[in-house]
Amino acid sequence: MPHFEGDIEKIGMEESSSPQSSSSAVHELERDAAEASSPPAVGVHDAANLNDMNDNDDRQFEFEEFTEEEIEAAATSVPESRPSVNIPPHSAIQSAGPGATPELMEMFYQRLFPFKALFQWLNHFPSPTSSFTNREIAFTLQNDAYLRYQSFPTYDAMKKEVIRLNPSRFEIGPVYSANPRDRKIVRKAAFRPLEKELVFDIDMTDYDEIRTCCSGTKICNKCWNFITVAIKVLDVALRVDFGFKHVLWVYSGRRGAHAWVCDKRARELDDAKRRAVASYLELVRGGAQSNKKVNLKRPLHPMVTRSLNILRESFSSTILVDQDPWRAPEHVDKLLKLLPDKALNQELKKRWETTSDQSSASKWADIDSLAQQGVSKSLDAKELKEAKQDVVLEYLYPRLDAEVSKHLNHLLKSPFCIHPGTGRVCVPINSARPETFDPMDVPTVSQLIDEIDEYDATHGTSESSEKLADYEKTSLKPYVEYFHRFVSDLMKEEMKEKRQLDQENGESLDF
Ligand SMILES: [Zn+2]
């Protein structure tokens, strides 16, 4: 990442670099109002902290204020030699690895980012409403500075500013009661967050203690199954238990996924209701140290029973075969700790000690076979069955970063941004078929720019190719089309509701 070396002051490094809860963001709002008259300053994240940020790429950060000149300086600190639409020298792309160079980012914003669809998604109507114009957009610039409280009258204005600032990514915040740019000139009470999509974050970090195939920022198709299963379980809960219809799942660009629940009812939830939804969905709790993370009363809640049925389908393949967590003799205690009967556990331990290479699937089968042989006089079959259910839940039930969901004013990275570490686009995931999504297949920004170039080279400037939008020439096409359909469904419903409301109001006026 390029570092800004101008005369912009570095302030509040520690504070600004640590992810914080939104409750402290509320305090920041208050402090912001109190400090409205003090000179604004620019904060710069250091490289190490930026890496953290890229991973937990959906946290809320301390905000800093910028003057127009400082924004200008930051934007122009990006190398001057930016070809506007030409392919940069290949060496430039290679030196950036899979990540995105500022040159590639600018081309991506100019030619591929679906600004109009993003606007319609946030706005819900064809022409701008306060849902878009009072919506906070926060930019992370190429020099790592973080720019909050931006807002735009139209998608075209947003597109122009994004191309000018060329941020490494941007986040979407709530719709405020006033234009976020005016927050210092309106009364404090007149500036408050009104609505935002209900969001969820699933990140592989929360699976690090149970996944065995990869660690750190790495992922593979085996561990991606944790995310696939999580999407299945949460998606059905949101639709069936809460009646939401417009749930958009988005790849976070590296090793996780975000859900955006866009129904009007969801957008209008206050923090208390968001907390309630999050805690309803959160079953697996406790840090790496606690032995048992699932503690459920019986009979099971119907939501848990349904989730278990979904999880059971993948437990054998995802956990027993792919992760194989209890194969090594030193790992069997992890499993035994979750089983209730001492005598049975002793017999299992004895059997597993004699084999140095027994698969987890075979060990899992041993539990029932030894239990049926009557090795324990005290065995409670029902208790054992419930403990095994808890093991399935502990290993496979979605692990939510619930803090992200609890606050109306939490910012979350926009769909179709580029992940700075991988260069991959944060594309939507089809929630009807999450198992068909392969994160390794998601195009990178450099790949997409190459694809446009290749398409133009093979098709020339024929009339038919000129009619195509650039995204249609690339592997981004199915993702953009999926997003278009999602947005169109959402807009149709909002417009229908509005017509009904207008009609009702019209009738009451007539009366
Ligand atoms: Zn893996």
Characterise this structure:
It is a single chain. The protein is an alpha+beta fold and 511 residues long. The chain folds into two domains: 13-204 and 402-494, Alpha-Beta Complex (DNA primase, PRIM domain); 308-397, no CATH class. The protein is built from 21 helices and nine strands. Strands 1, 2, 3, 4 and 8 form a five-stranded antiparallel β-sheet that branches. Strand 6 and strand 7 form a beta hairpin. Helix 7 (115-123) crosses helix 9 (155-165), helix 10 runs antiparallel to helix 13 and helix 15 packs across helix 16. It is globular. The relative contact order is 0.13. Bound molecules: zinc ion. Residues 1-13 have a biased composition (Basic and acidic residues). This is DNA primase. One of its GO terms (molecular function) is DNA-directed RNA polymerase activity. Its EC number is 2.7.7.-. Keywords: DNA replication, DNA-directed RNA polymerase, Metal-binding, Nucleotidyltransferase, Primosome, Transcription, Transferase.
